[in-house]
Records
---
Amino acid sequence: MTLREIFVDAEQRAQLSSQKHGELQYAVAATRGWSRSDLLVRLNLPGDAGMQVLVERVAHQLADGYPAEYLTGQAAFCDIVLRMREGVLVPRPETERLVQMAEDFIVREDLSSAVALDVCSGSGAIALALAARLPQVSVMGMELDPVSVSCSRESALDMGLSERVRFVQGNVLAAWGLTVAEFRSHADVIVSNPPYVCGQRLAAAHASSPVEPVRALYGGTSGMVFYKRIIAQACDWLRPGGLLLLEIDDGLEQGILGQFKRYGLQGGRWSPDLRGLPRYAEAHRAT
Ligand SMILES: C[S@@+](CC[C@H](N)C(=O)[O-])C[C@H]1O[C@@H](n2cnc3c(N)ncnc32)[C@H](O)[C@@H]1O
């Protein structure tokens, strides 16, 4: 059988949706240490039995909802590549906008050195992408899950950013002073994509990616648990005029604007994602 026939056969047996055929090629190529084009030029060559077993196994994993990023050990985000492994949330494209918003603020303020906190940092995607873009920025990521913390530290090392980007294991819902005390009233930006799926939407969110950790998604019955805590803490950790940036779920925007007001943050507003749904919220600490 040619490699092309092996792929077609495995896709049919696993009933892999056509949207995932590209991911199958990408994951198989990465497992073999090839680029996708290395694989494409081999498609008309005969494939060996080992290749047949590999393609079939990967096709079934993808069909079962296993993210291609877990198979390749890598995820692309903004202009960086992150380490990835099971238990770590795969960063989503819509989160890239948060990096852009943080970057715009730091550039606009013309800060020669800036400090950012990435709360619920997961793979370290936001922290590392921001630091990679702006050499004047130092970032501290706070994350509960030890696997995510070590994965993000490894990515920081890979990228030569471990001097400026640190990750600590900490519970955002507990006292922040234990983990990020040194940043009190000093952060120029606090950015967070916390767990925000509400109880009603959790089953659907989990079904769309059944292998990813529920801990990374569930934001309590109303979806607001993490926002309430982060917004309540923001005034203590931001410097006057500092910016709080949040990724949010649609339907939560009014509740979040209400929390901004309650804790005295100013200029609160939300903005939409590419589908037009409320996805980002921001506010400033008063100057
Ligand atoms: C939606 S994910 C976002 C990860 C990453 N910032 C990103 O944008 O890809 C939320 C993250 O919050 C972490 N998390 C859950 N509960 C937490 C807690 N109590 N304290 C700190 N982090 C927590 C999860 O492990 C997960 O990595």
Note: Residues 3-64 form one domain.
---
Amino acid sequence: MTTALAPEPLLAVSDLSVSFGGVQALAEVSFSLQRDEILGIIGPNGAGKTTLFNVVSGLVKDYRGSVAMGGVDLRGKSPQRIVGLGLRRTFQNVRLFKSLSVIDTVLAGQHLTIRESVFDSAFRTPRYHRQESIAVQRAQQVLAFVGLGHVAPGDMATSLPYGGQRRLEIARALAGYPKVLMLDEPAAGMNATESRSLGTMIRRIAATGIGVLLVEHDMRVIMSVCDRIVVLNFGRMIAQGTPEEIRSDPAVVRAYLGDEVGA
Ligand SMILES: Nc1ncnc2c1ncn2[C@@H]1O[C@H](COP(=O)(O)OP(=O)(O)OP(=O)(O)O)[C@@H](O)[C@H]1O
Ligand SMILES: [Mg+2]
């Protein structure tokens, strides 16, 4: 009898536990993420969502359980090394450099991945110029993809309206060709129209083959874009399923959704 080999998930989290002093931020959380998939992570304030992102991106190193990307164990790896494996994230609060223009912000996201030798960049070799012009082209494509194609590339990043700054952060993350993209409350502070179009954009990102982990409190965004949802409460996973399953799960409604269930 032959057995088909299941594809290695883009991201596999198994029995992940984290405690900060007496606070159990995560307790035995397990899930996996495939290509093209959008996995929502929801739960009340303090449920452990950002901590989960911090473990995967290498910022929190003291944990039990395992985290692997494409079968590679991330334990002990630096944040830069994990970026090199194809992970990008955005943060809960906007984090843009005040001194960088829009285009330079996106280029900064790419320079993490472009193989640029010190010799090439110091002496501005033809190879350096070739790589630089490819990078600028890529940056312009990514800006158009996130709906910032109309912005003057030389404008300062922080001069964009709030919604534009959030899109620019996603552009910076996408510029480095991620395999896995983690978005921490991308719709926070957006109005209904902005968050609807953000949702559409997240679907388009996943359609390019990227696996997306989406932490979000906006239930309309979560229910309309996610393929599956993981629900955390006090660090424990209380449910995992499709938006339909989650919407009608009594434990989830009790812990979290409450009145929002019809959203
Ligand atoms: N570096 C840290 N040191 C100590 N405690 C922490 C640290 N980071 C998080 N915590 C605690 O761990 C728990 C989970 O926090 P976390 O930020 O992961 O929640 P969250 O689900 O992202 O919440 P929110 O929806 O408010 O962003 C909270 O009790 C928080 O106070
Ligand atoms: Mg958080």
Note: The first strand starts at residue 11 and ends at 20.
